[in-house]
């Protein structure tokens, strides 16, 4: 059984160092995962791809093994050293990111993206599980928010580096370079981060001790999906991810197609405007939920709810602007507001399950969200834009968009009318398709409304009584507590 005496006395500075390294792990993960969306237009033109194929590379190729391996990887994380698993996973996906730069065909790039998915499937569950054992229930959302800063900061790094490298050295160089930092970080994680017993922080906070026996996948799934709040929050995560991946895969192409910006400009815009705004929203969501959740657990549902409702019209308005500056400002505002959803959602779910269920819970959430978002969302968004491109283009001299606009652009020697028609069709199709996808955020908001109705009771059941106002341990354990 887990208890305070079984754990090392870790200083606040050391816990901060561990959290920083795990945040950098998340940063590398998202940089390698999302760089394709920033430089996708260059790949599309170079390899003469359709938007369905681009969406396939961005979503399905990455997720086909990411989805199937995440649960087995989580099961290993419940039993074995999580630090070793995290270090190995980042080394694997970083290698495949660099290898993507050597791809000469759609098939070769597809295989590399599958390799990235394999590596990333193994890393997130143990990382979440480790954080919940370093940080207590009432500071967990804030800690998870800091970890999740890796998402927007990774988008920033991937977008800026990817865009600049693609503009001046080509998209292959961008992949080769972005895979290298992860190999160094894997070594640092292995040397510095210590494994801790499962349930460490919960025991210090006076919660029920954690069993040394890891529940099965089926037991964990039954537990998680038996909780009404968790069911609705997972559905909210799934719908948000569907929109975020589906629309997000085409944000950079949208800026290129609609405003004729170059890849370096697009990378800087996504990095500094959109990435930074997501970082602010991610941290703010965790802080607000922890702050207001001390007196009202419904805050863990209200914060995401308000963010999704307010962000939806801002994002839709952005796609309809004729001035890129206004579009970017609206996207940045929407990014701040919508990304408050993440940390409160995961913290609430983790607070309702046993410590030895958390890695598997992470994998189950990823499984459900990825099946809908990564496998379907990006391909569906690409198919919608392809269909709308054909609709807006119509026919010219008996031929359609796919024939006269391979890769979304007309041949350099094509008549001016065809070149202009290609540009206009894909511009309008991308705007309309992204606006339509964004409406899914309102559906996600409905599930957070439903979660708010049961969260207080579900929190109380998870802890065996009313929620404590603080997770501070007794004075004799204060130095070791989170």
UniProtKB/TrEMBL annotation:
<feature type="transmembrane region" description="Helical">
    <location>
        <begin position="144"/>
        <end position="165"/>
    </location>
</feature>
<feature type="region of interest" description="Disordered">
    <location>
        <begin position="461"/>
        <end position="482"/>
    </location>
</feature>
<feature type="domain" description="Major facilitator superfamily (MFS) profile">
    <location>
        <begin position="18"/>
        <end position="455"/>
    </location>
</feature>
<keyword id="KW-0813">Transport</keyword>
<dbReference type="InterPro" id="IPR036259">
    <property type="entry name" value="MFS_trans_sf"/>
</dbReference>
<keyword id="KW-0812">Transmembrane</keyword>
<keyword id="KW-0472">Membrane</keyword>
<feature type="transmembrane region" description="Helical">
    <location>
        <begin position="268"/>
        <end position="288"/>
    </location>
</feature>
<protein>
    <submittedName>
        <fullName>MFS transporter</fullName>
    </submittedName>
</protein>
<feature type="transmembrane region" description="Helical">
    <location>
        <begin position="433"/>
        <end position="451"/>
    </location>
</feature>
<feature type="transmembrane region" description="Helical">
    <location>
        <begin position="55"/>
        <end position="74"/>
    </location>
</feature>
<feature type="transmembrane region" description="Helical">
    <location>
        <begin position="233"/>
        <end position="256"/>
    </location>
</feature>
<dbReference type="InterPro" id="IPR011701">
    <property type="entry name" value="MFS"/>
</dbReference>
<dbReference type="InterPro" id="IPR044770">
    <property type="entry name" value="MFS_spinster-like"/>
</dbReference>
<dbReference type="InterPro" id="IPR020846">
    <property type="entry name" value="MFS_dom"/>
</dbReference>
<feature type="transmembrane region" description="Helical">
    <location>
        <begin position="361"/>
        <end position="385"/>
    </location>
</feature>
<feature type="transmembrane region" description="Helical">
    <location>
        <begin position="326"/>
        <end position="349"/>
    </location>
</feature>
<feature type="transmembrane region" description="Helical">
    <location>
        <begin position="171"/>
        <end position="193"/>
    </location>
</feature>
<dbReference type="Pfam" id="PF07690">
    <property type="entry name" value="MFS_1"/>
</dbReference>
<feature type="transmembrane region" description="Helical">
    <location>
        <begin position="300"/>
        <end position="320"/>
    </location>
</feature>
<keyword id="KW-1133">Transmembrane helix</keyword>
């Amino acid at each position: 059984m887990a208890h305070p005496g079984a754990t090392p006395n870790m200083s606040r500075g050391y816990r901060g160092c561990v959290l920083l390294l795990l945040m950098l792990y998340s940063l590398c993960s998202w940089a390698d995962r999302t760089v394709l969306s920033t430089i996708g237009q260059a790949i599309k033109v170079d390899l003469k791809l359709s938007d369905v194929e681009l969406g396939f590379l961005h979503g399905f190729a990455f997720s086909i093994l990411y989805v199937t391996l995440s649960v087995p990887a989580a099961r290993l994380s419940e039993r074995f050293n999580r630090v070793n698993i995290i270090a190995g996973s980042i080394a694997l996906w970083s290698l495949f990111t660099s290898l993507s730069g050597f791809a000469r065909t759609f098939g070769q790039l597809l295989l590399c993206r599958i390799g990235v998915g394999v590596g990333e499937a193994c890393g997130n569950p143990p990382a979440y599980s480790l954080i919940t054992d370093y940080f207590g229930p009432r500071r967990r959302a804030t800690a998870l928010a800091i970890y999740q800063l890796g998402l927007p900061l990774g988008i920033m790094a991937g977008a800026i580096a990817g865009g600049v490298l693609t503009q001046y050295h080509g998209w292959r160089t961008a992949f080769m370079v972005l895979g290298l930092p992860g190999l160094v970080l894997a070594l640092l994680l292995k040397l510095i981060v210590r494994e801790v017993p499962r349930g460490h922080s919960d025991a210090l906070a006076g919660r029920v001790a954690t069993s040394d026996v890891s529940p099965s996948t089926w037991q964990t799934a039954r537990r998680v999906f038996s909780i009404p709040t968790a069911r609705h929050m997972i559905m909210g995560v799934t719908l948000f991810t569907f929109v975020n991946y589906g629309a997000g895969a085409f944000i950079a192409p949208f800026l290129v197609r609609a405003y004729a910006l170059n890849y370096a400009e697009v990378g800087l815009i996504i990095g500094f405007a959109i990435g930074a705004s997501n970082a602010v929203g991610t941290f703010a969501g965790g802080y607000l939920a922890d702050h207001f959740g001390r007196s009202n657990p419904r805050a863990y549902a209200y914060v995401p709810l308000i963010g999704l409702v307010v962000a939806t019209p801002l994002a839709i308005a952005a796609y309809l602007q004729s001035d890129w500056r206004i579009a970017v400002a609206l996207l940045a505002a929407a990014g701040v507001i919508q990304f408050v959803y993440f940390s409160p959602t995961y913290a609430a779910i983790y607070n309702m399950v046993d410590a030895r269920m958390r890695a598997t819970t992470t994998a189950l959430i990823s499984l459900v969200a990825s099946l809908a978002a990564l496998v379907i969302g990006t391909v569906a968004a690409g198919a919608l834009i392809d269909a709308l491109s054909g609709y807006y283009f119509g026919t010219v001299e008996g031929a359609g968009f796919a024939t006269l606009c391979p890769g979304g652009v007309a041949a350099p020697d094509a008549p001016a009318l065809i070149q202009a028609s290609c540009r206009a069709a894909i511009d309008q199709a991308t705007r309309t398709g992204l606006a339509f996808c964004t409406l899914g955020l309102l559906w996600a908001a409905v599930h957070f409304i439903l979660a708010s109705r049961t969260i207080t009771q579900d929190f109380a059941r998870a802890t065996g009584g009313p929620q404590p106002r603080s997770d501070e341990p007794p004075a004799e354990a204060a130095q070791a507590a989170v």
